[in-house]
Write a structure and sequence with these properties.
Helix content is 39%, strand content 20%. It is built from 15 helices and 20 strands. It has helices at residues 64-70, 98-112, 127-132, 136-148, 161-167, 176-184, 265-282, 298-321, 330-339, 350-363, 392-399, 409-426, 429-447, 453-460, 473-489, and strands spanning 2-6, 9-13, 19-21, 29-31, 85-86, 91-95, 116-117, 120-124, 150-153, 187-192, 209-214, 223-227, 231-238, 244-252, 256-260, 286-290, 325-329, 344-348, 370-375, 382-386. It has a ten-stranded mixed sheet, with helices on both faces. The radius of gyration is 24 Å and the shape is globular. The chain starts with a strand and ends with a helix. InterPro entries: IsoCit/isopropylmalate_DH_CS, Isocitrate_DH_NADP, IsoPropMal-DH-like_dom. Keywords: Glyoxylate bypass, Magnesium, Manganese, Metal-binding, NADP, Oxidoreductase, Tricarboxylic acid cycle. GO terms for molecular function: isocitrate dehydrogenase (NADP+) activity; magnesium ion binding; NAD binding.
Length: 491
């Protein structure tokens, strides 16, 4: 451990590669995580230390580029010999948990920073640090995304009772995705990454289906409780003018459960506009699915707001583009989707989108081949992430020192989709081309037969997969890097 001082305070420096670390005392302090041996002739960096004084009026954000400038001559971390693409404005880098956290660092070191010179504002959303900061880091990360317009997020753990015990948490912290989505609003759009060699469970899906998931409220911001004994549950609305409206929910004769949830007209309208804008961008028709025949007021509100906004703001644009908008009952929509060839945007309420996006991903072959981008109603702000979890089973193997064959493609696409949006906002053509070529490199590798175990299993069946038919994680990342270099050399 190396120590230095910041404004008279001692700051820890861990013995790992460079990254930013969020701190309660110094909310945005970059910690130099240096390796035991430097790249300058193997000089032991743990014997070196340095200090600097900085007394800002408010906590300073120090990025990886800033710190590298400070320690130039002490730590050299060479990237590619080619000129890196300069990105003028920052992105927000949200780290995660378990196997995806390990892969996240490798992706940055192998596929992003050697090619792109970008200010990456780092927030550690790993569960231990969320617990240490009482989840404040999650809120700070969300507001940083609002400020800088581009967030790129690694998969994270949402703790249950078992995780609370495993990590000795102070409490069962909420889903960081839910927290961030409730702050940003907007819609999560999930779309499959189509590789020709991966067979589809739904062969008729020749085009992609994009799931637009409302990212606010409903079950993800609800109040639920166990009813321990007989009694009456009532829904009470108290207006700011003092008017009280009371509705009986249920008269319990025995123990049970009850749930109260909500949404806002403003959020539903934002969901609608994000969905209409995305459909126009893709030039695909848009379908909204609800169960308004049962939830006449709740789901009926979604249906009415979508229809009103469509008629007033988007109908002419849709007509000009030769596409359409339609509301359907969700059970009918599920059946129609299975019979379709794809090529449409499907707007779902929060829970429905959570479920249907996984079904669609598996229908195209793999949950590991799915993009996920949260688009805010302003059209400027996005958060890109992997659409899968933290791959706990592989992490347990990694902890035992066993090699894993973990699919990094969705995490790579989180970076490319974030950088593509940064490129669009900044009119950075070089960054756009790089991001597209990195995505192409991933697909090219898979289509050439270089892939991880999960994708080989999609082709041959898991029981038929043998060692040697697939690449381990780091080997696959190296293969993608080689393919990327090949693709870029032709540009």
């Amino acid at each position: 451990m190396v120590k230095s001082t910041l404004a008279g305070k001692v700051i820890r420096r861990n013995t790992e590669p460079n990254e930013l670390v969020h701190s309660r005392k110094h909310p945005y302090v970059q910690i130099l995580k240096c390796q035991r041996q430097s790249l300058l002739g193997g000089i032991p960096l743990l014997k070196r230390s340095f200090s600097f004084q900085h007394q800002p009026k408010k906590p300073a954000i120090m990025t990886s580029n800033t710190m590298r400038n400070l320690v130039r001559g002490v730590l050299s971390r060479p990237y590619s010999t080619q000129k890196r693409i300069n990105v003028e404005r920052p992105v927000v880098d949200l780290d995660g948990d378990e196997m995806t956290r390990i892969i996240w660092e490798k992706i940055k070191d192998k596929l992003i920073f050697p090619y792109v010179k970008v200010e990456a504002l780092y927030y550690d959303l790993g569960l231990p640090y969320r617990d240490q900061t009482n989840d404040q880091v999650t809120y700070d990360a969300a507001y940083a995304i609002l400020k800088h317009n581009v967030g790129i997020k690694c998969a994270t753990i949402t703790p249950d009772e078992a995780r609370v015990e495993e990590f000795k948490l102070k409490k069962m912290w909420p889903s960081p995705n839910g927290t961030i989505r409730n702050i940003l609003g907007g819609t999560v759009f999930r779309e499959p990454i189509i590789c020709q060699t991966i067979p589809r469970l739904v062969p008729g899906w020749t085009q992609a289906i994009t799931i637009g998931r409302h990212a606010y409220g409903d079950q993800y911001k609800c109040t639920d409780l166990v009813v321990p004994k007989p009694g009456k549950v009532e829904l009470v609305f108290t207006g700011t003018d003092g008017e009280v409206q009371k509705y009986e929910v249920f008269d319990f004769k025995s123990p049970g459960v009850v749930l109260g949830m909500y949404n806002l007209d403003e959020s539903i309208a934002g969901f609608a506009r994000s969905s209409f804008e995305y459909s126009l961008q893709k030039k695909w028709p848009l379908y909204l699915s609800t169960k308004n025949t049962i939830l006449k007021r709740y789901d009926g509100r979604f249906k009415d707001i979508f229809q009103d906004i469509f008629e007033k703001e988007y109908k002419k644009q849709f007509d000009d583009a030769g596409i359409w908008y339609e509301h359907r009952l969700i059970d009918d929509m599920v059946a129609q989707a299975l019979k379709s060839s794809g090529g449409f945007v499907w707007a779902c309420k929060n829970y429905d989108g959570d479920v249907q996006s996984d079904i669609v991903a598996q229908g195209y072959g793999s949950l590991g081949l799915m993009t996920s981008v949260l688009i805010c109603p302003d059209g400027k702000t996005i958060e890109a992430e992997a659409a899968h979890g933290t791959v706990t089973r592989h992490y347990r193997m990694h902890q035992k020192g066993q090699p894993t064959s973990t699919n990094p493609i969705a995490s790579i696409f989180a970076w490319t989709r974030g950088l593509l949006h940064r490129a669009a906002l900044d009119n950075n053509q070089e960054l756009k081309v790089f991001s597209e070529q990195l995505e192409k490199a991933c697909v090219d590798c898979v289509d050439s037969g270089k892939m991880t175990k999960d994708l080989v299993a999609c082709i041959h069946g898991l029981k038929n997969v043998k060692e040697g038919m697939y690449l381990h994680t780091l080997d696959f990342l190296d293969a993608i890097k080689d393919q990327l270099d090949h693709n870029l050399s032709k540009k």
